[in-house]
Structure formats: structure tokens, C-alpha cells
Amino acid sequence: MGWTEGPSERRMSRLDGGSFRGSGKRLAAAAAETQLEMHTHAPPARHETDSPELEFDLVDDIDIPYESGVRTSQLPASEHELELEDEEPFQALRSDPPPNAGGISEKDLDIVFQPIVAITTRRVFAYEALTRCRWPSLANPETLFRRASEESCCGRLGRIVRAAAVQRAPGVPLFVNVHPDELSARWLVRPDDPVFFHDHDVYVEITESAAFTHYDLCVSVLKEIQSRAGIFLAVDDLGAGHSNLKRVLDLEPRIVKLDRALITGLDQNPRQQILVRHVVRLCVELGAEVVAEGIETYDELSAVVDSGCHYAQGYLLGRPSYPLPPANWPES
């Protein structure tokens, strides 16, 4: 998954390029120059991501990969990036922003899409919208939305993300992630939310932990938005260990996404295969279809197919990108 949540008016002011002040700018420029020189002459290095299974080479002009929207490498900071770090990132997203407020604006956010592939047809069923942020300290979308939540502007940030996702992906089913704060502040029930103007089905994706900790709120808000045509619930990260299966399924999701912890190495673990088959069977009997996330090898994909899952998602089938990437079903 990758976080994408929260509504917002689009009153966003652009960053002031002269936000550095005094000697701080000279020091930042010198630091950036030193980092750039080190990067130019040092040999490529292996870089571990937040996910221990993924590693990438740091090279010039790298295409920064994401898993569930998480930035996995960081090039030397440019002067512009250093300027971003000197700003207060959420000024313009507050309910009462000061005059000429700076901080994150639309130009600092990018939305990429990862295909979710139907196993029976091997064709794209839908796309999940994932958020990237140019601010280095907020490159991880979980950090981005956690900080936004602390500043009480998660809703406005999420609305910007949803508006961009809907604009970039017309005519296809779309999965959008929603932060619990957007449920409690009732952003999603506003009739002008971008999801209600998408021209295809929208799957509002909440995590397993949110389904557990905000259960009553989920029931209330989701019942209201699902009464409108084309809006469905998807529960993400099932199996991450936050809650019991019954309570999640009591929300009656249309889609359940299995956490990658259940998928990684599935082909090598017979006991794990039994568990996944039973979870899939239970979901089907309760009216939900199942997505297996985080598939990275052909053997994992084969095990997922054998388990009875309906859909597959992961780097093996397509990396997050834009324009909308095709599905790449591997040959045996």
C-alpha cells in the first residue's frame, strides 16, 4: 500500500525560491556541492530500503523506485531540496493559513500508479494510486501523512492527492488510500470530494489497523459513502497482525489485500500456503475478493495462483509509474 488520503481546498501557494536566509544559504550550498562531488567520484553503493527484501544501486540519473509509495533511495540534496527543508511544510494546508503561506503545494506531490492484475485474465483489473513527495524528509508517504496528521491537515493533503489521482487515471478502476483522520473529520462524505467525480469504480483503501482501531467510525462513514454508486471498501495489509479477521470482515469489504508478509517466500513455506488458502476461502465465503500484494518472483506468483487469490500486485507485474503502466505477466 501507499498512503493517499485526506481532502482539501486547493488553496496552495507556491514556494518562495528565496526562503534561505543569511549564512544558512551559503552553508547549505557548500554542503550540497560537497555531497555532489562525493556522489560523482564514489563508486555505486548498495542501498538498503525500508523493506529488507529490496536493494538498489545508487547511480547517476537513477529512477527512484517505490514499494507502496516508499522512496527507497535519496540522491544528494539540491539547493532547491535544501530550501524545502528550511520551510514549514504544512503552512498552506492549515485551516487558517497565514498570508503568503509556504510549504507543500501540488508541484511537490507526484502520483504514480501500480497495476493490480486479474489472475484469470492476466490483464489489469485496476490501479492503486501511490503518493511521492519531493521533500526529502517526507519522501516516505507514511511519514508524510503522519506529520500531516500531527499538524491537523491530513484531510486537505489527502484531497489534493485524490484530485490528482482522479485527474491522471480516467476510465479505469482506482484504489485510493485513506488515512483514519479523514474518517474522523468526515472529509470523505463531502459531496464534492474528487472520488465522487471519477468515471469508474473507486476502492477506498483503509489499513487493517485502521479497521480495528476506528471500527465504529469506519462503519458510519463507509456506509454513507458506499451508498453512492461506484464506491467500494478495500481493506489493506490483512495479516499484518493488528486485528482479528472477523472484525475486519464485519466491515463487508469488496476487496481484501493480503499483507506482503503472507506472500514473501510463500512458495517455500507449506504451512504459510495452508494459512493463505484458508484466509482466501473465508474471504470468498463472506463476499470479498482477494489481492496478493508484494509479489516479486515467479515462484511467489505461482504459489499465489495456487492459493485461489483473485488478483496479484507487485514489482514482478509492474512498478509504480506514470503514465499508467501495463501489466507484465511473466512467462514460466
Concise account of the structure shown:
The protein is built from eleven helices and twelve strands. It has 332 residues and is an alpha/beta fold. The longest helix has 20 residues, at 22-41.
Q: Strand portion, in percent?
A: 15-25%
Which word captures the global form?
A: globular
What order do the helices and strands follow? HEEEEHEEHHEHEHHEHEHHEHE
Q: For this entry, what is the oligomeric state of its chains?
A: single chain
* Largest sheet features: 8 strands, mixed, barrel
Strand order in space, largest sheet: 5-6-7-8-9-10-11-12
Mean pLDDT: 77
Under the CATH scheme, which class?
Alpha Beta
* Total of helices: 11
The portion of residues assigned to helices is 25-40%
Low-confidence runs of at least 5 consecutive residues: 2-76
- At the fourth CATH level, what is the homologous superfamily? EAL domain
Q: How large is the radius of gyration?
A: 21 Å
**Number of DSSP strand runs:** 12
CATH fold call: TIM Barrel
Helix vs. strand class: alpha/beta
First and last CA, distance: 27 Å
Written description of the protein model:
There is one protein chain. The protein has 332 residues and is of the alpha/beta class. The chain has one domain: Alpha-Beta Barrel (TIM Barrel). Helix content is 33%, strand content 18%. The chain has helices at 22-41, 79-86, 141-150, 154-168, 180-184, 208-213, 215-226, 245-249, 260-263, 270-285, 298-307; strands at 46-48, 55-57, 66-67, 70-71, 109-118, 123-133, 174-177, 202-207, 231-238, 255-258, 289-292, 311-312. Helix 8 (245-249) links the parallel strand 9 (231-238) and strand 10 (255-258).
